[in-house]
């Protein structure tokens, strides 16, 4: 094949080969790196019997795993700081892995230390802020209490006249002062408690002290940062007075249980002022220190951000290389690594060049060797797709990956899938809306491909070209149906029909007459709105669905012939392809022929009657249902062929397979007589094992199931294609209902407000029901027709994908 890459061929997967690489240890790393850049070699694991810790490069993987952990830590810290890794073009300067490891260790240690110091300073700052709030609120309480006590004392002194009255205190201050045993000493605790716990806090205090405590709470206006959690919490300042050590201990335990932070408070006014001054100064100093630490941390994260992508790509690349190297095995000399893997045949020259370049650049003493291995193992399936074909190939692969080099339905799916969708979705107004929405994704694909999209948006973006084709085909079928939001237009000329008189009074009773040639393209617009519109379109779409279904099923059977011919399987041609073609076309191919003849001749024959009595009364006269001469004889021949094709599919193939197997077994036994006794015994035991593996009963039952499945499937699959008619009719009727019962109804009220409401409802219904739900419904039905009705005729789908070792980013894979 000339050139670096052959022309893309989607019909059959790329020819693959199993190759063995023998690489010197000193050039192994570079070799795997260059193969990863090439992205065309799938390594096989030759060390499946070893655990990950027993492999050659376990230490290197552990090292790069630790480096990857540090990078994830950096990314988390940048996310918390509101930074995103730079995606601008970065310099691809060579970075020494050992230097990077040391640098990452230093950066992590520095960042961890900055975080720890920052947390300590932030906690201290939060505690000082709470202490300041407590000093202010409790100071206000003590000041107010002292003012009230002084005023009360003066009031009592002014009222005393030397004579005892009812208001005279029983114990004078002098008496209490002279007798210390009569004085009551009260202690107090103050602090902050979360506001949502304040009521429970008060009740528990009352019950624990049996009412022998005085609690005062004041709400803090703004939420405060809690020193323990670092989150903003609404809190209350509390002040509780108690008597005795026992009560104090209880209150301390209750404060601890409710997460209440306690702070000291001095009753001395001068001392209060001094403490407030010290706290304010400490807060200012801490704020300055915290800001300096945050600035330093921000600069450090900015430095990491600028190089993060480069470091991350390097670490991921190195880790992937060593994971791959662990799949290679050491040879007996311990100087070379031996690897096996699959690659496309066209990539052989590129792989050889990569090996030679790696050996040259690593100054290895021994060259690398590549040799093709012969194996009976089924190779992986590799289709080279682009951004347009990849989505269609994914639709096929979702059902099952193609067997190696079998015919790929993806080639035909590119056209048939959007076309069958459009048959169900045919409206060129809706198609234009779908096209405009898709063009947004297509025209902005470079910008959107580099962004992180939501799950649904990502899915729509990935299938943008599928939806584009669906929209274009919907416009095409909409023009055939002559529907624009259910409204017909005379785009291709005047109607072929006209009224019998000028005022069209008898149009609904007598009907129209044909005055000119047929409408040149699609359905004549005069059909829309008539009494016979629904019967006419029903008949048209139902027959069209059968024609499309029989054509696609025939295509599937024809592809089974190309598969059998490609794999040199004559049995499948003679005893699968031929009888299947005869059976399908004897019944439903004949039905398709009748539909075309009826359209061509304009006959009034009843096709249901013809097909039913083809089985119930094959010798009866067709009478007025005859479409062409010799139809009776043709029906009898076709029915006989259909009946003969069933045992043709069922019986010969199992017996011929058994005969082929016995002949192969016998032949091998005779040829081994010329060899040594030992090899003869080995081959004989091998042949007997193969012979035992062939079970005629299993093969016959499998063929019986396959035959029954095809015979019944021919009927059910043809009926299944009637979903094209049903969904097309539903889409057309829904569109008509929204137009007539919403838009035209609102227009008829001659009211601007009602008209605006009607337009809004019409747009919402059209977008929500017809452009979203109907699109999804038609998509799923088209998917089913391809997976079940089309692909089961030829597609095995039991292969496995080719997953080469590659450094190509996922986003650039389809470019």
UniProtKB/TrEMBL annotation:
It is a multi-pass membrane protein. Belongs to the V-ATPase 116 kDa subunit family. PANTHER family: V-TYPE PROTON ATPASE SUBUNIT A3, VACUOLAR PROTON ATPASES. It is found in: Membrane. The lineage of its organism: Eukaryota, Viridiplantae, Streptophyta, Embryophyta, Tracheophyta. GO terms for molecular function: ATPase binding; proton-transporting ATPase activity, rotational mechanism. One of its GO terms (biological process) is vacuolar acidification. Residues 90-131 form a coiled coil. The chain crosses the membrane at residues 419-443, 464-481, 544-562, 582-601, 634-651, 752-773. Pfam families: V_ATPase_I. This is V-type proton ATPase subunit a. InterPro entries: V-ATPase_116kDa_su, V-type_ATPase_116kDa_su_euka. Keywords: Coiled coil, Hydrogen ion transport, Ion transport, Membrane, Transmembrane, Transmembrane helix, Transport. The keyword Nucleotide-binding does not apply.
């Amino acid at each position: 094949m000339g050139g670096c890459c052959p022309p893309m061929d989607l019909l059959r997967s790329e020819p693959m080969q199993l190759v063995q690489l023998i690489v010197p240890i000193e050039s192994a790393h570079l070799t795997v790196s260059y193969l990863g850049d090439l992205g065309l070699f799938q390594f096989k694991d030759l060390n499946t019997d070893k655990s990950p810790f027993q492999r050659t490069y376990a230490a290197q993987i552990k090292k790069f795993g630790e480096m990857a952990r540090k990078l994830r830590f950096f990314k988390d810290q940048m996310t918390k700081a509101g930074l995103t890794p730079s995606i601008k073009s970065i310099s691809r300067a060579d970075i020494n892995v050992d230097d990077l490891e040391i640098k990452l260790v230093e950066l992590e240690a520095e960042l961890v230390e900055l975080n720890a110091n920052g947390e300590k300073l932030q906690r201290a700052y939060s505690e000082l802020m709470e202490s300041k709030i407590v000093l202010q609120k409790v100071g206000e309480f003590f000041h107010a209490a002292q003012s009230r006590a002084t005023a009360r004392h003066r009031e009592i002194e002014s009222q005393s006249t030397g004579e005892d009255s009812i208001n005279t205190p029983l114990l004078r201050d002098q008496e209490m002062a002279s007798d210390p045993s009569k004085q009551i000493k009260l202690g107090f605790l103050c602090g902050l408690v979360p506001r949502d716990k304040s009521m429970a806090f008060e009740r528990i205090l009352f019950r624990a002290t049996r009412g022998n405590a005085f609690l005062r709470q004041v709400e803090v206006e703004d939420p405060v940062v809690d020193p323990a959690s670092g989150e903003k919490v609404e809190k209350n300042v509390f002040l509780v007075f108690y008597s005795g050590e026992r009560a104090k201990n209880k209150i301390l335990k209750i404060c601890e249980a409710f997460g209440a932070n306690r702070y000291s408070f001095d009753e001395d006014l001068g001392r209060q002022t001094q403490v407030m001054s010290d706290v304010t100064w400490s807060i200012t100093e801490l704020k300055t220190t915290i800001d300096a630490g945050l600035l330093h941390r921000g600069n450090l994260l900015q430095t990491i951000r600028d190089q993060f992508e480069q470091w991350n790509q390097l670490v991921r690349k190195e880790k992937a290389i060593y994971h791959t190297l662990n799949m290679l095995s050491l040879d007996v000399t311990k100087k070379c690594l031996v690897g096996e893997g699959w690659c496309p045949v066209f990539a052989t020259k590129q792989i050889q060049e990569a090996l030679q370049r790696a050996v040259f650049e690593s100054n290895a003493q021994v060259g690398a060797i590549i040799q093709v291995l012969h194996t009976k193992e089924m190779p992986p399936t590799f289709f080279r797709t682009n951004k347009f074909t990849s989505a269609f190939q994914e639709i096929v692969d979702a059902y099952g990956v193609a067997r190696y080099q079998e015919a790929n339905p993806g080639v035909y799916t590119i056209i048939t899938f959007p076309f069958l969708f459009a048959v169900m979705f045919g409206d060129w107004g809706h198609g234009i809306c779908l096209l405009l929405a898709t063009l947004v994704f297509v025209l902005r694909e470079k910008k959107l491909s580099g962004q992180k999209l939501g799950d649904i948006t990502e899915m729509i973006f990935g299938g943008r070209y599928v939806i584009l084709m669906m929209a274009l085909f919907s416009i095409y079928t909409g023009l055939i149906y002559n529907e624009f939001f259910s409204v017909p237009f005379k785009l291709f000329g005047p109607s072929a029909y006209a009224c019998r008189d000028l005022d069209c009074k008898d149009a609904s009773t007598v009907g129209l007459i044909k005055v000119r040639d047929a409408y040149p393209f699609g359905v004549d617009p005069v059909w829309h709105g008539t009494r016979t519109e629904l019967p006419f379109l029903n008949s048209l779409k139902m027959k069209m669905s059968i024609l499309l279904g029989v054509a696609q099923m025939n295509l599937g059977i024809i592809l089974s012939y190309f598969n059998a011919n490609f794999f040199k399987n004559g049995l499948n041609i003679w005893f699968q392809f031929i009888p299947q073609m005869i059976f399908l076309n004897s019944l439903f191919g004949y039905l398709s022929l009748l539909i075309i003849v009826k359209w061509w001749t304009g006959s009034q024959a009843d096709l249901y009657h013809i097909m039913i009595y083809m089985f119930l009364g094959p010798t009866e006269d067709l009478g007025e249902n005859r479409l062409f001469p010799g139809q009776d004889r043709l029906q009898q021949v076709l029915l006989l062929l259909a009946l003969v094709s069933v045992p043709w599919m069922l019986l010969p193939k199992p017996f011929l397979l058994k005969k082929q197997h016995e002949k192969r077994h016998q032949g091998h036994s005779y040829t081994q007589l010329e060899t040594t006794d030992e090899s003869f015994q080995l081959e004989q035991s091998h042949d007997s094992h193969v012979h035992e593996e062939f079970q005629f009963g299993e093969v016959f039952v499998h063929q019986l199931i396959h035959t029954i499945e095809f015979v019944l499937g021919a009927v059910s699959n043809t009926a299944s294609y009637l979903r094209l008619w049903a969904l097309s009719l539903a889409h057309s009727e829904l569109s008509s209902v929204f137009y007539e019962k919403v838009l035209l109804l609102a227009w008829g009220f001659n009211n601007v407000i009602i008209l605006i409401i009607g337009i809004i409802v019409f747009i919402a219904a059209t977008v929500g029901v017809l452009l979203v739900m109907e699109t999804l419904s038609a998509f799923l039905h088209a998917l089913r027709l391809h997976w079940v009705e089309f692909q089961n005729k030829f597609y095995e789908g039991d292969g496995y994908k080719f997953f080469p070792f590659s450094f190509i980013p996922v986003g650039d894979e389809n470019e």
